[in-house]
Task: structure prediction
Amino acid sequence: MLTINEIQDEIIEEFSVYDEWLDKYEYLIELGNSLDIIDEGQKTPDNIIQGCQSRVWLDAKMDSDGTLNFKADSDAIITKGIIALLIRVFNHQKPQDIIDAQLYFIDEIGLSANLSPTRANGLLAMIKQIRYYALAFNALNK
Amino acid sequence: MDIQQIRNDFPILGQKIYGHPLVYLDNAATTQKPQCVLDSIMKFYTLYNSNIHRGVHYLSEKATEIYENARLKVKEFINAKSRTEIVFTKGSTEAINTLASSFSQRFINSGDELIISEMEHHSNIVPWQLNAQNKGAVIKVLPFNDRGELLIEKLESLITDKTKIVCVTYASNTLGTVNDVEKIIKIAHSHNIPVLVDAAQAIQHLKIDVQKLDCDFLALSGHKIYAETGIGILYGKEKFLEELPPYQGGGDMIKNVSFAKTTYAELPLKFEAGTSNFVGAGSLHTALDYVDKLGLENIAAHEAELLNYATQKVEALGGITIYGKAANKVSVLSFNIDGAHHYDTGMILDKLGIAVRTGTHCTEPIMQHFGITGTVRASFALYNTFEEVDALVDGIKRAKKMLVG
Result:
């Protein structure tokens, strides 16, 4: 299993081939379309992260090996592509590793504007929510 | 009107964004500033900066003169009866908040009713809600049809002897609809009910004559008509403004202060607490002069051509839904690519150098009407060109291909 930073570096490497913005977006759309999305039944008000631009749903559970398993969705496809990357980074990681993680790949691949609080696309709140889940599962484990 | 020459007046438009020429189509959010407005701001700070009113010295007198001349310019621009009817605010939102607070204090009691149209910007809903809640008053909604036209014929049936005010936008920031406010005002006045007109999206497109309209209150923002941000106007008929209590307390709005009793300044200063944005007021004066020089009717004619051209071209693409098909519109085109999210469309257009707005445009009731979460909005101003519309249409085509195939 790769570490969080190894996955981040892998993503940075993948994006380094794109010079054009719209090529990056094409790739994100592709990732968004292949995201293993949250079950419709799990798209509950509890799991929604309401942005004024786009909405994000997130659910988490702990697998038997003590790692976390996130599922998510968004109504906007580029947002969904970024979610796919976040999930790739955080899925199957231990709660403590998620809590300790420094997220740098989004900045490196030039998508940091998408995490601005004023964008209100739900992504920033989603990252916060991922950390809350990690904290909660960590506390449960102790 | 020579658009190319006009574009030279707006230095920001010459930029490249992500390697593409900037196509600025977010004018309903804010307009760009001509060089003369930029110069007026620089000139003020370089030569006249000083706090206005009651200053005994030369610079203060000069600054006061600029501020008060700006008030006169606004008075002429909207044809108010008197300068005392022109209150400077920081924008239309503050103008409406001022009115909502003062009007409610004076005129609204428990069980009273306010009528607000379904197509209002949040800034013409929430201030009234806040005050209505405080007073135990009720808000009634004047609906619009699926073309985005207000059902004015329903107004009469909404009015009761409890109705205290009608609040309506002149032009919708989301749908572009120009409402027949004159008719609304006539109906309301036949029941002795005053009307607030939100002119934030009208002032830059339509000639407004408050005496002819006979509106009781009007709100507008300077930054939507090529002036600086942070300056706006609350117009009110003198008989109402005289009767309303002040909104905020502070400097400039008082006559005498003691702990026992404070008396308030004469109109319009009663509503201008604290140091006003006098630089913004000066910039508004310059901006209105600029608009006058070009002629609002020439500007409107150019914008109407742009809107027609854009609407036809976007419709011709197919697979696009346009929101707002009123017969009379300002230059606002709201749409969605069928099957695509507005945010995705906006993000792709952005990377092509095209600035549009996406989301609810602070009009969630309009979104609820159509059962959507948002739209893409392109809004045109005097400096936009047909080539820019072509760039928009190509961008939409590209986004459509990427998002829905």
Q: What stands out?
A: The first strand of chain B starts at residue 16 and ends at 17. The CA atoms of residues 116 and 167 of chain B lie 5 Å apart. Chain B has two domains: 3-27+295-404, 50-292.
